[in-house]
Description:
alpha+beta; 4-stranded mixed β-sheet; 3 helices; 36% helix
Amino acid sequence: MTYADDTQRITMYGAEWCGDCRRSKRLLDGLGVDYEYIDLEAVADGADRAQAISGRTNIPVIVFPDASHQVEPSDADLRAKLEELGTLSR
């Protein structure tokens, strides 16, 4: 399932209580990546949207402009995907 508003921008579904979410958010922020953060505790259908994308209940779910996604990515995996997309300056 793709949401039209999210197709050109990275979208991260997460929650503040989630350690993996805080880690991924810290990496994106530290790298200066432009992304939309969907707080699953603040957005009524956020968890349902994240689960529809990933087929899992694990978070964070990070959706990329190429329609791919990662669930609970390591910093190395997330950084590699950002480099693949040309989001990071090398």
